[in-house]
Amino acid sequence: MVLIIVSSAVIGAAAGALVIPNPEPGVEKHYDDTFRVLASNDRDPGRSSQTVGVYEYADNGSITAVNRTVVTQPVQLWDSNIQSRDALVIANESDMYQSGLHGFVQIPYRDRWTPLTDWWNTEFRILPLYSADPSRATSTDGHYTVEVRHPNGWWNPVYNAEVERVDGNLTVTNPDEALVLSSYYSTVIDRKIQIVEGLLQHSAMAPSPAAARSTSSVPTRNGSEVFPTTDGASVGLQWRPGSHELVRDAYVGNIDVAPGVWYRGRYITPSWQLSTYVPWDYRVDVPSDYSESGSCTIGNNTYSLTRWADYRLLDSDAEVVNVTAGNISLDYARPGMWTTVNLTSSAPRRLPPGRYDLTATLRIETELETHYGVSSARCSEWDSIRTTNRTVELQYTVPIETVNSDDLSVDVQVYDRPGRDVVSVNWTGEQGLAAGAAAWEDVEVQIGEKTMYVTAPWRFYSVSRNTHVEERTSGGTTAVEASHSYRGTYPAMLHYRMSPANVSVLADQPADQHIWWNRTYVARNRSVPATPLPSSIIATQNTKPTYLYDQFAGVLKSTDQVTGESVTAEASDVWGLPVDTSVSVTRYRESELTVTVNQSAGTAVVFLTSATGLPLPGRTITFDGAAVDSVTTGADGRATVDVTGTIVRAHFAGDYWRDSRPTYYLDAHGYGVSQTAFVGGATGVLGYLSAAISNAAIFAEWLVFGIFALLWMRFMRERPASRR
């Protein structure tokens, strides 16, 4: 057997794959690649390249220091900020997911330097580096690392800090010059706005009508169009057979529905409000001017002529004229963004739970002037002007399903016991992203100073929908890679995909106590099948069905032995909205168990009462040293058993929390000593010990209760007189 113990970790990426810029005090550096954390299905160049230093302990006792390469697992992206270095490493080596579809998750993209005196939280710490490693030091003398606490809890490094000992304490003596390293951030919502605006740069946000007509930016995935394009606005050609399509590479699409997730062929979104990001584009291709030679006959002579046609685009206009969901026409919020909120009254418009089509309609109108005629030196000349108007309408539809958590309720039952509180979470109504049911995200239970979270099995991975954008003009096509960087011309289109994982429990660990969870009872109601995900996402928990529960219960153990604590609970769905939550608390009470031995009858009577002396009937008492393993107390709280050992040990395990009782009582122990059970005639103390200790498990209690002293005195009285 080889025991592996992790000693330290060193980030090691594939050669040339990851460069983490070292901070230079006061110099802002960009971390564009941090936005790759939002594209879980992209290639992770550093995956399987994280090297961990470990010690291996062999069976022969030898210890060997080795390096191991480990595969990184998906990392949860919280609502709070992450640091630039962490974001870069995760983007390079792993994938990220969220447990909910709400909040303003922020991604760092640039260094930010702030004087220590201007930092909003002045709590800082100074850590001496006894090895004087300048690569780890932030102080000017290279002997200390100085850090200031961020409001989210982590510590930001402070550079250019002059550290001196003042009145026996280390302190920073130049807070005006010392610089705190933090980051500039952009939210995921801002990122999606950048995505749609990037695709609209040649249409709705083009600098001029000519620029809008010249180029169409078409998102593609490995050469295939994400949104099918169409050609239209056909006009006849003067002097030539056939026709010409004025409108080329026109499309309208749907990047994402927010808040929403793409799940099993449709967007799942809340019934109270939704927004959608609609990109579109087109270009106009004007027919080339044309001329051809001909002739005319005047008398007996033939003369040459030229038939010609010149084309000029008088006007073109395109816009998304309508976005509908069910019977609601969404309001235009900003370029490429539409919402069910009535922007006149600021009131959201609800779409009752159900399935709908979300349809965007793009209308393109063109006006073409055709100037044509005949030119000749001798033949009759003439010219004419014809104006042609053409309209192209195209639609893009995605299926959506609106859900809410109105039907879902959570009841939290806490059975308050010293150091072993039972917490039972009970769900009523639909769970998951089923018809009319929003998924729950977490249930928070606070018992005094202890906080636990029951976390839902849903994981939401943000994935890229395109790999390139093709810029199509009359001169050809140029493929531009869809970038994950902050300043990319075409940020990759993103939407969420859902993957089930498992229901789990997290417990906050206060500094002054330990908390741990022991699951004791679950009631499953159904399972959620695995959901197809891009192969590049490592989601091992998605490979098997995930169970949902009607009830999930266990013991919240802690070093805190307090009872009578305040208890609160709240639950929320994946949209961040509260779920109807109720709390009930059952306080356990003390019980007492006495054991009285009847020496003459060879029996023992157990008596189970409350701390106030109230008899407790119908409780099971288990025994050591009795003729039966267990009995049930009668209406008077008593029960009688035959004694078979020197010590009669009785145990009441306490009321089981799932039993229906008006009052619940804690466990209790009782002991009784039977002298008549001693084996007479033993000639040595070992004989008495063997008779008295019939069970090794009660040896400790035997010693504690002084039974050894009792037996020893009896042995000394009953042993035969020694011969002198």
Key phrases:
724 residues, mainly beta, nine-stranded mixed sheet, seven-stranded mixed sheet, 50 strands, 7% helix, 48% strand, elongated, disordered N terminus
User: What gross morphology would you assign?
Assistant: elongated
Radius of gyration: 39 Å
Indicate the proportion of strand residues.
Answer: over 45%
Could you name the ranges where pLDDT drops below 50 across 5 or more consecutive residues?
1-16, 677-724
The class by helix and strand makeup works out as mainly beta
Q: Between the first and last Cα atoms, what is the distance in angstroms?
A: 62 Å
Mean pLDDT: 86
Number of strands: 50
Strand arrangement within the widest β-sheet reads 39-34-33-42-43-31-32-41-40
Main sheet summary: 9 strands, mixed
The oligomeric state of the chains shown is single chain
Total helical segments: 6
Report the helical percentage. Answer: under 10%
Keywords: Membrane, Transmembrane, Transmembrane helix
Protein name: Ig-like domain-containing protein
Transmembrane segments: 696-715
